[in-house]
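Customer escalation, tier 2.

The customer says the design service returned an amino acid string that "doesn't look like it belongs to this structure." They asked us to rerun it and document both sides in this ticket. The original structure tokens are below, unchanged.
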């Protein structure tokens, strides 16, 4: 595992963007696994800047997103399809047909999960999977549970995740209670994984995920078994991880 401890969120974002840009430059038709939430926003802004400067093209890139709220339409301003359009896709030259996000309005969630799992498989899974991490150690929407879920599935969100995401909605009551998410098995099939974390509120989760036992109670801990993981965080998020500084 490679660990980069950066001074602040902006430096973290730039470092993470460098990792993604290197992947795109080395393999223009790569498959990028993409994430949402506040952690990767700065990374996407940096990628957009490089694209507008003419330094980076997404013309041949295919993308597959981790998850989507169940029950939200693609044009809902808190859906993850909307997030990706607003924070990346609408500002770069990626081909719309080459972007994939689960259908939050699917009438049959089990069928949609099976379809989306096949989409990931048909793409050959991600060359590089970008991940954020929740305060409870979740990745994607894989919440702490008794076992690691393997494939794309419908998940009931924990109260801590609902509370963490409530800041994006008018109230906690408006946060969807379920989501469609790639499973741990799907995520682990990526050839490279890039994790971005920032803020002191993530420090305990980082410690448990990368220096604690591998357990489904801390979903991100499974990443200790992946052969190619890069962790990029700011000093606050990595403050409890021995050897992260320097």
């Amino acid at each position: 595992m490679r660990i980069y401890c950066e001074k602040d969120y902006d430096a973290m974002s730039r470092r993470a963007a460098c990792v993604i840009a290197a992947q795109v430059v080395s393999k223009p038709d790569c498959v990028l696994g993409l994430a949402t939430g506040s952690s990767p926003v700065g990374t996407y802004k940096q990628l957009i800047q490089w694209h507008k400067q003419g330094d980076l093209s997404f013309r041949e890139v295919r993308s597959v997103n981790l998850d989507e709220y169940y029950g939200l339409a693609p044009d809902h301003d808190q859906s993850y399809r909307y997030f990706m359009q607003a924070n990346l896709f609408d500002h770069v030259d990626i081909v719309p047909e080459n972007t994939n996000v689960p259908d939050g309005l699917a009438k049959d969630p089990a069928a949609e999960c099976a379809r989306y799992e096949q989409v990931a498989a048909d793409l050959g899974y991600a060359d590089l999977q970008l991940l954020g991490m929740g305060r409870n150690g979740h990745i994607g929407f894989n919440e702490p549970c008794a076992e690691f879920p393997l494939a794309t599935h419908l998940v009931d969100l924990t109260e801590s995740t609902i509370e963490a995401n409530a800041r994006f909605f008018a109230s906690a009551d408006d946060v969807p209670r379920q989501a469609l998410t790639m499973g741990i098995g799907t995520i682990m099939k990526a050839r490279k994984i890039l994790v971005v974390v920032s803020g002191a509120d993530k420090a305990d989760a980082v410690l448990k995920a990368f220096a604690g036992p591998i357990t489904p109670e801390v979903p991100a801990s499974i990443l200790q078994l992946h052969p190619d993981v890069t962790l990029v965080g700011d000093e606050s998020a990595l403050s409890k991880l021995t050897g992260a500084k320097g």
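Tier 2 assessment: The sequence is consistent with the input. The domain at 2-234 is CATH 3.40.50.1360 (Rossmann fold). The chain is about 30% helix and 15% strand. Sent an explanation to the customer and offered a walkthrough call.
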